[in-house]
Amino acid sequence: MEAQLNELKTQALDKIAAASNVKELNAVRVAYLGKKGPITDLLKGMGKLPAEERPKMGALVNVVREEVTARLEERMAILEEQAINEKLQSETIDITLPGRPVKSGNAHPLTRVIEEIEDLFISMGYEIEEGPEVEKDYYNFEALNLPKGHPARDMQDSFYISEDILLRTHTSPVQARTMEAKGGEPIKIICPGKVYRRDNDDATHSHQFTQIEGLVIGEDIRMSDLKGTLSVFAKKMFGEDREIRLRPSFFPFTEPSVEMDISCFKCGGEGCNVCKKTGWIEILGAGMVHPNVLEMAGYDSKRLTGFAFGMGPERIAMLKYGIEDIRHFYTNDVRFLSQFQRTEV
Amino acid sequence: MLVSIKWLKDYVNTQELPPAELGEKITRAGIEVDAVIDRSEGLSNIVVGHVESCVKHPEADKLNICQVNVGEETTQIICGAPNIAAGQNVIVARPGARLPGGMKIKKAKLRGEESNGMICSLQELGIEGKLVPKAYAEGIYVLPENAEVGSDVITNFDLDDTVLELGLTPNRADAMSMLGVAYEVGAILEEEVKLPEITYKEAEDKASSMLTLNIDSPEANPLYVAKVVRNIEVKESPMWLQQRLMAAGVRPHNNVVDVTNYILMEYGQPLHAFDYDLLETGNITVRHAKTDELITTLDGNERKLSLNNLVITNGEKPVALAGVMGGANSEVSKNTTTIVIESAYFESGSIRQTSKEHNLRSDASSRYEKGVDPNRVIPAAERAAQLLSELAGGEVLAGSVIFDQLQREEKIVNVSPDFINSRLGMKIRLDDMLDILNRLQFKTEAMNNQLMISVPTRRQDIQIEEDIVEEIARLYGYDEIPSTLPETATSPGGLSPYQQKRRIVRNYMEGAGLLQATTYSLTSEKSATQFAMKHTELTRLLMPMSEERSTLRQSLLPHLLESVSYNTARRIDSVALYETGSVFLKGQDELLNEEEHLAIAVTGLWLDNSWQGEKKAVDFFVVKGIVEGLAAKLDVELEFERGELDGLHPGRTAFITLDGRRIGVIGQLHPNEQKARDLKTTIVMELSLAELFKEQTEALVYTQVPRYPSITRDVALVLSKIVEAGTIEKLIRSAGGKLLKDVRVFDLYEGDNLEAGKKSVAFSLTYFDPEKTLTDEEVTAVHEKVVAALIESGAELRS
């Protein structure tokens, strides 16, 4: 019986070694260690042995069984790992294939510029004021020191709807309305919005465009405050190393009036095609609020003074992003719009 | 305004500054120099030549063979100009010469004949064709007889000059003259201004013996000076005068016209010359025109006048449109021997109105419109008399015929140095202020901390204290102004709730995959109301530039769809755009009711993961999902009710309602509309943001995270196709009571296995009790009630 047992053991161990996969090995387990297997049979047959041999024989069978079991587990571990490796191998993907696209839109470049300017001034304590695009002649012109008959308010240049109503030609009427509404109180606002002028659309003109204006009114507001404010704006918007310069200019609603240039952000002032070799780029118009404008809105121009400035987001976007044709902003070519997806932070 | 630096030097020392540097100084002080133009740029080796002989080229009809004395030699040059002739002094570009545009002159052979250079027209020297005197416009320019043969053309005829192009703001009308610019440059460079010295000999006869004057409209014409000059010879002006005019952008004509234009440029005072004999009556009467009176102006146009127009007449008929343009009937010509020179002050409003009415602007009207210097009217007339006696051999009759009621006192502005400094945020010393005012030649008295400033009449833009602040600041230098920030009470800035919500919408739309578009507010009358939910009366412009941009839009969709078509026409098949902007509705008020809308237009594929074979075209539910998500963001309960709108698919359109108010529409474009716009399936949506943002959102308070599990039961129903899922959902919700937490459609089937006219819809119902774990029996009891209600409503359970 012992010989029979050893024979069985050798056979089992050979089959374990020969099993090449988990399935074959499981078959070996069932064949040798299963309820109907030879080792179980041997144990069952022990009843026929003399009582004194039984313990010895039982121990022997157990040793064989344990050894076979151990070798089987060992082999099983190897085969299982092999099976996993094969599975992983077969599951390999081409990781260079494109990912599942996430649909994502973005803001119009003009919105991008306007919101950047809004946020900058909000951080300096400004509020955003808006007003109607179809405006009364009074707010668009008269309240801004452009009385009837003034050459700068030619019918040819504005879209009138009736004698007294027109599409606003600038966002300044929002300032006039705000001043009137505030009844003599200090003001600190930014006014963005669409404006309209009677121009033929071409690469540099658009009958509809946007403006963003600022107005500060308070006690002892000085021209130096205007310069300081614009300087902060220029640095935040166009880079910390930007310098500004003011040049005298003329607007009916400010006195003194200035135009602000910034040192060219492309060449740094050396002279290039962006700044037309001058080293400076004209960015905005500004000035101290004309006393007539203050008085007309009910402010005491001896007590309160103010400054105002205005700029064109189209021009800023064109300079910043190198856009050559203003019509791009209103054509909505997806190949244009989707370029303004990424951040510049 | 074009300013020749050579000419400017007659009146002010420019300190030999390089032109670009002078230009920069002028710009920094307030008048923008738009361009610095070197008149001799690209010119070299150009001399005076004398044409000794000129014969036809044997091989070419249009060419001439000229023997030209160029000083050091006589050389052969072939010339094709029609006006070339022997005996002329001409401009010769020698071999090796350079002309503008990089052209280089070389020896050449033309049809077998040698040509050693080129005889030039003025255009070839870089002068604009419209400035070249008419006689030479089509050929070469002929130099005066006394020109020195072989001498350098560039230096002898003042082409070695630089012109500053000034971009003048409307307030600086004073700089529309050489003298005005001289005062400005004098103030900048701290130099004196030298006025022209006017001396001439007068005849014994008086001007008043030949001419009488009546002014019928003194309010529009408070000053009129006329001088009479006789025995003049009308001819070409000398070279220096022609060159100065061309440098200033004025075409030379003859000495009389040129003198009036020269003084216009020098003094900024428009002059006009009449042929005395053609006036016929020896009288000048200034009056308003009669209705429908006619005049033919110098440009050859006959104009019908109105009562608003001021005219110069000979007592009977108009001979000039006052301050705008002369009449053809009294024009100076070669045969003129006696002229009347007019120098007048016309009120600006009258000139502006006439100029606008006749759509006629001239150098004269543009100056009158802005107001001329009342103190230069008489000197300009005297200057004209002087130049005409010098250049036209004229005999100036004694005195002037004059009407004068013009006030011309200097404006007094009182301002304190403290005021100036407080407005600027600076500490400029009184002495520096006085120095600047002195440089400007503003007479100033300082006393009791107050400056009393007399402003010369040439500076009519200076009216109030703030104007003085600007004068001081611009000459002191804007670079000297310090940078400070307003010392106002700091208040927190920010966006209004409306503005914040607008940004939330923008961010949400972009997160959902839509690109922001911007379109025009003006559209055609035809598209103004297309897709609009509320039609109101159209708002048209009084003077549109085109029918396409004539009317204010009442819906954003027509233009947004145009943008979609623009893209698909360029083979971009999938487009997803949104826009926020105002529509313009007629309201009670004279202003319009401007309502901000949000619009969406999508076409093509919504999902395109091509290599994995996942593609999903846009459909109604893509856009509905976006709107539902937006409603959740803004915490509003939107409902969708079936509806119809022109241009949309009648079976695939819904109105969006909020608290029972229709605030928007969503739908698929009608196939006809799609075809008209050359689009494939396109879904649009438009809603009123004004309505959507109306209500204030409630404060957010968190709901406890569920501590007990929820239980889900499904029910699949067979329904008639016309029954809407929304109706069934409502029924389920009302039958489910408070334990029913959520109802969701999870399957829709409309296939062959169903009876015709039927569809199968499966709902997933979630039951939940926040207080305890629901038992199976509790859920079954409620669920059976729901099922019973469904069956009662006519639905069948799908087995």
UniProtKB/TrEMBL annotation, chain A:
<dbReference type="InterPro" id="IPR004529">
    <property type="entry name" value="Phe-tRNA-synth_IIc_asu"/>
</dbReference>
<dbReference type="InterPro" id="IPR022911">
    <property type="entry name" value="Phe_tRNA_ligase_alpha1_bac"/>
</dbReference>
<keyword id="KW-0479">Metal-binding</keyword>
<keyword id="KW-0648">Protein biosynthesis</keyword>
<keyword id="KW-0547">Nucleotide-binding</keyword>
<comment type="similarity">
    <text>Belongs to the class-II aminoacyl-tRNA synthetase family. Phe-tRNA synthetase alpha subunit type 1 subfamily.</text>
</comment>
<feature type="binding site">
    <location>
        <position position="255"/>
    </location>
    <ligand>
        <name>Mg(2+)</name>
    </ligand>
</feature>
<dbReference type="InterPro" id="IPR002319">
    <property type="entry name" value="Phenylalanyl-tRNA_Synthase"/>
</dbReference>
<feature type="domain" description="Aminoacyl-transfer RNA synthetases class-II family profile">
    <location>
        <begin position="111"/>
        <end position="319"/>
    </location>
</feature>
<dbReference type="GO" id="GO:0004826">
    <property type="term" value="F:phenylalanine-tRNA ligase activity"/>
</dbReference>
<dbReference type="GO" id="GO:0000049">
    <property type="term" value="F:tRNA binding"/>
</dbReference>
<dbReference type="GO" id="GO:0016740">
    <property type="term" value="F:transferase activity"/>
</dbReference>
<dbReference type="InterPro" id="IPR045864">
    <property type="entry name" value="aa-tRNA-synth_II/BPL/LPL"/>
</dbReference>
<keyword id="KW-0963">Cytoplasm</keyword>
<dbReference type="GO" id="GO:0005524">
    <property type="term" value="F:ATP binding"/>
</dbReference>
<protein>
    <recommendedName>
        <fullName>Phenylalanine--tRNA ligase alpha subunit</fullName>
        <ecNumber>6.1.1.20</ecNumber>
    </recommendedName>
</protein>
<dbReference type="InterPro" id="IPR006195">
    <property type="entry name" value="aa-tRNA-synth_II"/>
</dbReference>
<keyword id="KW-0460">Magnesium</keyword>
<keyword id="KW-0436">Ligase</keyword>
<dbReference type="Pfam" id="PF02912">
    <property type="entry name" value="Phe_tRNA-synt_N"/>
</dbReference>
<dbReference type="Pfam" id="PF01409">
    <property type="entry name" value="tRNA-synt_2d"/>
</dbReference>
<dbReference type="GO" id="GO:0006432">
    <property type="term" value="P:phenylalanyl-tRNA aminoacylation"/>
</dbReference>
Automatic annotation (TrEMBL), chain B:
<dbReference type="GO" id="GO:0000049">
    <property type="term" value="F:tRNA binding"/>
</dbReference>
<dbReference type="InterPro" id="IPR002547">
    <property type="entry name" value="tRNA-bd_dom"/>
</dbReference>
<keyword id="KW-0547">Nucleotide-binding</keyword>
<feature type="domain" description="B5">
    <location>
        <begin position="408"/>
        <end position="483"/>
    </location>
</feature>
<keyword id="KW-0820">tRNA-binding</keyword>
<dbReference type="InterPro" id="IPR033714">
    <property type="entry name" value="tRNA_bind_bactPheRS"/>
</dbReference>
<keyword id="KW-0648">Protein biosynthesis</keyword>
<dbReference type="InterPro" id="IPR005147">
    <property type="entry name" value="tRNA_synthase_B5-dom"/>
</dbReference>
<dbReference type="InterPro" id="IPR036690">
    <property type="entry name" value="Fdx_antiC-bd_sf"/>
</dbReference>
<dbReference type="GO" id="GO:0140096">
    <property type="term" value="F:catalytic activity, acting on a protein"/>
</dbReference>
<dbReference type="Pfam" id="PF03483">
    <property type="entry name" value="B3_4"/>
</dbReference>
<dbReference type="GO" id="GO:0004826">
    <property type="term" value="F:phenylalanine-tRNA ligase activity"/>
</dbReference>
<dbReference type="InterPro" id="IPR045060">
    <property type="entry name" value="Phe-tRNA-ligase_IIc_bsu"/>
</dbReference>
<feature type="binding site">
    <location>
        <position position="467"/>
    </location>
    <ligand>
        <name>Mg(2+)</name>
    </ligand>
</feature>
<keyword id="KW-0067">ATP-binding</keyword>
<keyword id="KW-0694">RNA-binding</keyword>
<dbReference type="Pfam" id="PF01588">
    <property type="entry name" value="tRNA_bind"/>
</dbReference>
<dbReference type="Pfam" id="PF03484">
    <property type="entry name" value="B5"/>
</dbReference>
<comment type="similarity">
    <text>Belongs to the phenylalanyl-tRNA synthetase beta subunit family. Type 1 subfamily.</text>
</comment>
<feature type="binding site">
    <location>
        <position position="461"/>
    </location>
    <ligand>
        <name>Mg(2+)</name>
    </ligand>
</feature>
<keyword id="KW-0963">Cytoplasm</keyword>
<dbReference type="GO" id="GO:0009328">
    <property type="term" value="C:phenylalanine-tRNA ligase complex"/>
</dbReference>
